[in-house]
Amino acid sequence: xxxxxxxxxxxxxxxxxxxxxxxxxxxxxxxxxxxxxxxxxxxxxxxxxxxxxxxxxxxxxxxxxxxxxxxxxxxxxxxxxxxxxxxxxxxxxxxxxxxxxxxxxxxxxxxxxxxxxxxxxxxxxxxxxxxxxxxxxxxxxxxxxxxxxxxx
Length: 152
Hints:
By secondary structure, the protein is α/β, with parallel strands linked by helices. The chain has 6 helices and 5 strands; from the N terminus they run βαβααβαβαβα. It has a 5-stranded parallel β-sheet, with helices on both faces.
């Protein structure tokens, strides 16, 4: 049984997320997804649009996902989650900022050098990311692209 771990924020769940998780699942038998803690999202990106428990529930409902858990807050060392998940592989998304080499080096330092790190391919769609989707909505709303949006 090969356990794969995928990590992400998963705010405004979209096709790019599904593609990432489908590819991650194809790397093994079981997929455990770690959904970023709200405080981690605030520290790394922005105020979350949806809270961590709702994001976890949405991810858990996707077909490729066997289990979804909320990650630790940023006050807990990042590699501590490995003791909970116990993955054989870590799947990195095509657009995640972490380099495979840096993750492998961190795993080695923490005594988890046996875990394989794989970067999955991106979705060839122009709306495969949250920022792209928000930008498209804003363009439509403000009238800069086939708009302005009008309610029925």
